[in-house]
Amino acid sequence: MTEIRQPQGQLLLRTLAMPADTNPNGDIFGGWIMSQMDIAGGLLAKEIARGRICTVSVDKMTFHSPVGVGDAVCVHGHCSRIGTSSMVIHLEVWAKPMLKQEKDRYCVTEGTFTYVAINESGRPRPIPAQA
Ligand SMILES: CC(C)(COP(=O)(O)OP(=O)(O)OC[C@H]1O[C@@H](n2cnc3c(N)ncnc32)[C@H](O)[C@@H]1OP(=O)(O)O)[C@@H](O)C(=O)NCCC(=O)NCCS
Known about the structure:
It comes from Ferrimonas aestuarii. This protein is of the alpha+beta class. The chain contains 1 helix and 5 strands. Helix content is 15%, strand content 41%. It has a 5-stranded antiparallel sheet with strand order 1-3-4-5-2, with helices on one face. The protein is globular, with a radius of gyration of 16 Å.
């Protein structure tokens, strides 16, 4: 029996793919998808760091399938490592065609984003102890 893949981590962001976000092929532009991932991961990183953070690196970005205009786009994620000032967050983007209700959601993109907790001068600061 084939195991059906499910999103890993918590739902961090849900939005709609709009016509203004397309590339010349008419699919959704990969840069827009990456920016949604960065926003979603940044939300989780801010919660963990309880304050200001910045993105320091993006790794292992893989685009599995195109996203269509009108698809519901969800970003799920979980933190896999907390260092002194850095957080490694794995993010997955799942799309669900809104006009074809019979079609299941599918994973379109995934990647690993690293964020750093920073102080008011933009320098790394220690992440507070987690509850
Ligand atoms: C993030 C930044 C503050 C780190 O400064 P830095 O002088 O490299 O700091 P450090 O060497 O002390 O590293 C701090 C932490 O970042 C991690 N780090 C630094 N560069 C990294 C990289 N390329 N990839 C992954 N982690 C990195 C270090 O491992 C360290 O983690 P730890 O504290 O958990 O051990 C600095 O590189 C910066 O301001 N970058 C620009 C950020 C930015 O503008 N982002 C885009 C908009 S949000």
